[in-house]
UniProtKB/TrEMBL annotation:
Protein name, UniProt field: Acetyltransferase, GNAT family protein
Gene Ontology MF terms in the entry: acyltransferase activity, transferring groups other than amino-acyl groups
Keywords of this entry: Transferase
Organism: Pseudooceanicola batsensis (strain ATCC BAA-863 / DSM 15984 / KCTC 12145 / HTCC2597) (Oceanicola batsensis)
Keyword Transferase: yes
Keyword Oxidoreductase annotated: no
Highest taxon, organism lineage: Bacteria
Limits of the N-acetyltransferase domain: 4-146
TM annotation in the entry: none
């Protein structure tokens, strides 16, 4: 297996990135299924075209992070790569590029909440989910580099 490299996503990565998104959403039983696999691929293809997506690649795409400036829109890791440091590598790549990061995570996503807590993210506020597509309660998390705090 090749070493893990964090790189900009390319248009041909959309299928692999979309499959990771689809798989993750389907594994969360509390998450409503709002989009088909094809729609997920089209969505991440658009994010890739915008230049927002970085992937973890070791010969296969193991995870991805979509970031617009300081806002992280998505961070997902393939099932077989979870717990291996892929998510940490992706978020650390974003941390190296920005002095501040913000993201939303669902209240129900306990694993993600613990992950971000270990990385130093702080809760800024919670919502009832009325403003997100899934209509699920969520939490805004914020991270700031030490020099900025």
């Amino acid at each position: 297996m090749s070493p893990l490299v964090i790189r900009d996503a390319r248009p041909l990565d959309a299928g692999s990135v979309g499959a990771i998104l689809t798989q993750a959403v389907r594994e969360h039983r509390w998450m409503p299924l709002l989009h088909s696999a094809a729609e997920d691929i089209a969505h991440v293809g658009h994010l890739i075209d915008l230049g927002w997506v970085r992937v973890a690649d070791n010969g296969a795409i193991r995870g991805f992070l979509a970031r617009e400036e300081e806002f992280v829109h998505a961070l997902y890791v393939a099932r077989g790569a979870r717990g291996s440091g892929v998510g940490r590598r992706l978020i650390e790549d974003a941390m190296a590029a920005c002095a501040r990061l913000e993201l939303n995570t669902f209240v129900a996503n306990v694993g993600a909440r613990k992950f971000y807590d270990r990385l130093g993210f702080d809760e800024a506020w919670r919502t009832d989910g009325a403003e997100n597509d899934e209509r699920l309660p969520d939490i805004r998390l914020v991270w700031q580099a030490e020099a900025v705090r």
